[in-house]
Amino acid sequence: MAEASTSLYTTLIPHFSQNPSPSRRTSALPTARDRNSIRCSISATSNDSTRALVSVSQKIPWGCDVDSLENASALQKWLSESGLPPQKMAIEKVDIGERGLVALKNIRKGEKLLFIPPSLVITADSEWSCPEVGEVLKRNFVPDWPLLATYLISEASIMKSSRWSNYISALPRQPYSLLYWTRSELDTYLVASQIRERAIERITDVTGTYNDLRLRIFSKYPHLFPEEVFNMETFKWSFGILFSRLVRLPSMDGRVALVPWADMLNHNCEVETYLDYDKSSQGIVFTTDQPYQPGEQVFISYGKKSNGELLLSYGFVPREGTNPNDMVELPLSLNKSDKCYREKSEALRKHGLSVSQRFPLQITGWPLELMAYAYLVVSPPSMRAQFEEMAAVASNKSTSKKDIRYPEIEEQALQFILGSCESSISKYNKFLQGSGSIDIDVASPKQVNRKLFLKQLAVDLCTSERRILFRTQYILRRRLRDMRSGELRALRIFDGFRKLFQ
Ligand SMILES: C[S@@+](CC[C@H](N)C(=O)[O-])C[C@H]1O[C@@H](n2cnc3c(N)ncnc32)[C@H](O)[C@@H]1O
């Protein structure tokens, strides 16, 4: 799933481009099936439709429970019959990730696995069972993400008539995704984390994308896009599937794809290998970076993502301290009462920054950009000649030196970062201390379980993010103490010399 969610930020856009995507080829992948027998258009009142209707309030009628193996053997059988070579792994229930791929034989480090042929992969070029539906979207230059989301719904809704029915039946009916969190759940559970804002943005993007499609395309072709099938509920499902399973294949010009079977692999933060197209074997592969014994779960990497990003796209939080790419964002702002507020904000604007910025903190430290921003915030009017340089370094677009130092204001800059860090910590403390008393007062036991599950995810996320803030606080305090004791020592030495010459 490497870089799967990176593709979101670049391709999921609520307002579609008027130009055709340059990377999209027009030819469709060859398939053996004859599609003429499938009825594609239905009227909303049709009784004998081949489509599975799903009203907005209904549950998705396709897919399976997230931990179910019920359709896994049918998927395996269909894939083998369709050209998937014999595998050294099988789908099983696992401790991490509910279902996953488990080694059947000894697997060596450096071994290539999978070899999934392109004919078994879903891309923006895949053939539609209802060609008219695909043609309308392509005529309107719908980008890859919304196109694939519509494709999935279109194929899922015709059930057994779709070439992908065995694959779709094995997909989770409700993927773990922040798209399913209500606004009040986000506000309650993610109140301390910056991921809350990212989740709201993402939900807004998905809702905007669906509304845009509905307004511009679906409403004009109601016989092809009946609302009973193409609605917000089904789009939430399909986008949830894309966020958690779509991969970007570097060796296929970065094209995005759903890769049945490979998408049963779970993520491990300590593994670095990822899925890609292998030109020599002409299939999707990955190369193991550790050996596996029979019965062990095999993992790949979904990319160098923080715990928050993993929760956002994949709906899980790794165990505390196991993710070397974990990160938390620290918000910093210019002080409104600063005498140089206008000049500083102008310098920031010039370099593409705003008066409030967020900077990533990791357990190993913070970026030079953050320090430059802090210098700018605390610098006095006498340093106005340096505002430009500070803003340039803070923006990461500076071509000149990056590691700027202003010893005269270093202590204030560190103290400013520490203040912001401590105010973030207190937000996390408040949430974590109060999380025991969050009201889980709901009628059905299923709802209670859901709320407890969301709360646990939020507690895990906030604990890991606070851990990074604690570490930053420790380093800042130690530096400040060293600086102050260094200054004190220098003062004493200076005092000693003064007395000597008196
Ligand atoms: C590409 S799918 C992997 C297959 C999935 N386990 C399944 O049964 O369909 C990604 C989903 O697997 C689960 N997952 C993957 N890695 C995980 C991990 N390290 N811990 C917990 N869940 C994980 C999450 O639910 C995620 O949304």
UniProtKB/TrEMBL annotation:
Q: Which residues bind substrate?
A: 245, 263, 277, 302, 314
Keywords in UniProt for this one?
Methyltransferase, S-adenosyl-L-methionine, Transferase
Give the GO molecular function terms: [ribulose-bisphosphate carboxylase]-lysine N-methyltransferase activity; protein-lysine N-methyltransferase activity
Q: Which CDD domains match?
A: SET_RBCMT
Residue ranges with Polar residues bias: 13-29
Q: Does the keyword RNA-binding apply?
A: no
Q: Name one GO biological process term.
A: methylation
Residues covered by region (Disordered): 13-33
Domain of life assignment: Eukaryota
> What is one cellular component GO term in this UniProt entry?
chloroplast
InterPro entries xref list? Rubisco_LSMT_MeTrfase_plant (IPR011192), Rubisco_LSMT_subst-bd (IPR015353), Rubisco_LSMT_subst-bd_sf (IPR036464), SET_dom (IPR001214), SET_dom_sf (IPR046341), SET_RBCMT (IPR044431), SETD3_SETD6_MTase (IPR050600)
Q: Domain SET: where? A: 87-303
List positions binding S-adenosyl-L-methionine: 245, 266-267
Q: What is this protein called?
A: SET domain-containing protein
